[in-house]
């Protein structure tokens, strides 16, 4: 409870008048009647404020209900509704808002309302998740004015709400409505594949231009008296593991999302494509909070993956690729595609080579490395000063060392992509299909 601005102004005015009349009395310019009037006004104001204080009634009975989704996507605004019911016996003026939350921002609040007795009003607003994980929303806050606007009463509704904030799965929801060929085109992935390149039989169909002679099913051809081809598809039931670096390497932020969030989105999209292809996807995090998910497949697989990694956060720990490899081979021996997502640098070469040697004994290893977009853009800046030249030279050297490192790793038999964060999902899907269709698994 606190006095309103109007009440404070009246009090200040009364005090100033009292100061003036006191000074006037000292100088013999004021009469007793003036002082008496000033005192009566003060007493009246006191009783008026006391009476107004008790007009507020039982504000704890005010009903505030809100309707919000139980799960949110990072960065995607969603609609929420708050219903306020005035249970008091008089009309009220109030200001309604949500309490601050480190994981959420609100748009359309606060809202000023005037409610008649027993009247209910719906307020529509939007909330946007800015950090992943689980968020607890405290009860809505309402500031209610007393009948004569002398007091503001703050009311916090006791009911709390919990929401889970996931990586942005809106692209997945969009892709789920499309066929696999459309999904690939939507992602911007360009594949060159001849018919019949796969190893598992899919179906028989009429011969078309471009089919090889070895695809022709001669027995069926003679039966139907027209050329019939066998169509094959990529092998299914293969395993893909995503190993995500939760250390300091992915804490960099070029835009609204950190490299870590870009990596999570790319993993989800690639896993969704792989699951739709009939493969199983597993997950492991390292250099921070360690989580492990055995390979999942089928329509519910992507939901299991979402619930596993939605609350992961990057840490300040150093990355140890060799330790990661040794732990992984102890838990999984079946031949799989291992996708390590990190930010690989020159000093990682020896450690990464040793780690990939350990993993490559039974698995195919792909290293997905994210480079800083801010450094790439720095090469486009004009050079006007010595500092600009030094900055350009150092940035160029750093990026050139990354290219050299990638070349060394490829020459050692490591599959690697070094890409910008916003292109990671396209590069991952492209490389997934390339490795899968090369029959290395």
Automatic annotation (TrEMBL):
Species for this entry: Sessilibacter corallicola
Pfam families cross-referenced by the UniProt entry: DUF58 (PF01882)
Keyword match Phosphoprotein: no
Protein name per UniProt: DUF58 domain-containing protein
Bilayer-spanning residue ranges: 32-51
Listed PANTHER family: BLL2464 PROTEIN (PTHR33608), SLR2013 PROTEIN (PTHR33608:SF3)
Residues covered by the DUF58 domain: 204-375
Keywords of the record: Membrane, Transmembrane, Transmembrane helix
């Amino acid at each position: 409870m606190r006095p309103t601005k109007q009440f404070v102004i009246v009090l200040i005015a009364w005090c100033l008048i009292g100061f003036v009349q006191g000074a006037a009395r000292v100088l013999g310019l004021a009469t007793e009647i003036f002082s008496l009037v000033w005192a009566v006004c003060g007493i009246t104001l006191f009783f008026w404020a006391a009476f107004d204080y008790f007009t507020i009634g039982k504000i704890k009975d005010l009903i505030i209900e809100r309707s919000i989704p139980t799960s949110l996507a990072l960065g995607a605004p969603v609609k929420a509704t708050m219903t306020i019911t005035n249970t008091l016996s008089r009309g009220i003026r109030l200001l309604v808002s949500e309490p601050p939350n480190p994981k959420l921002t609100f748009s359309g609040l606060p809202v000023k309302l005037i409610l008649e007795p027993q009247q209910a009003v719906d307020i529509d607003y939007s909330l946007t998740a800015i950090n992943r994980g689980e968020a607890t929303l405290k009860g809505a806050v309402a500031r209610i004015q007393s009948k004569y606007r002398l007091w503001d009463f703050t009311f916090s509704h006791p009911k709390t709400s919990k929401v889970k904030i996931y990586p942005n799965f809106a692209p997945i929801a969009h892709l789920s409505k499309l066929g696999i060929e459309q999904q690939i085109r939507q992602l911007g992935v360009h594949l060159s594949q001849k018919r019949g390149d796969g190893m598992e039989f899919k179906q028989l169909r009429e011969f078309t231009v471009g089919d090889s002679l070895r695809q022709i099913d001669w027995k069926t051809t003679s039966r139907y008296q027209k050329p019939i081809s066998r169509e094959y598809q990529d092998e299914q039931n293969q395993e893909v593991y995503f190993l995500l670096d939760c250390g300091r390497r992915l804490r960099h932020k070029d835009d609204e999302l950190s490299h870590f969030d870009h990596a999570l989105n790319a993993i989800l999209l690639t896993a969704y494509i792989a699951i739709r292809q009939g493969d199983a996807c597993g997950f492991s995090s390292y250099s921070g909070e360690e989580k492990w998910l055995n390979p999942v497949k089928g329509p519910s697989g992507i939901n299991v993956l979402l619930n596993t990694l939605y609350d992961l956060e990057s840490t300040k720990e150093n990355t140890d690729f060799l330790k990661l490899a040794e732990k992984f081979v102890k838990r999984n021996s079946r031949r799989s595609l291992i996708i390590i997502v990190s930010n690989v640098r020159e000093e990682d070469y020896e450690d990464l080579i040793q780690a990939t040697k350990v993993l490559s004994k039974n698995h195919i290893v792909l290293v997905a490395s994210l480079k800083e977009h801010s450094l790439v853009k720095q090469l486009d800046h004009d050079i006007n000063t010595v500092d600009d030249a030094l900055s350009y030279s150092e940035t160029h050297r750093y990026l050139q060392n990354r290219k050299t490192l990638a070349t060394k790793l490829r020459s050692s038999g490591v599959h690697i992509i070094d890409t910008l964060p916003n292109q990671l999902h396209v590069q991952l899907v492209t490389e997934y299909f390339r490795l899968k269709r090369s029959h290395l698994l």
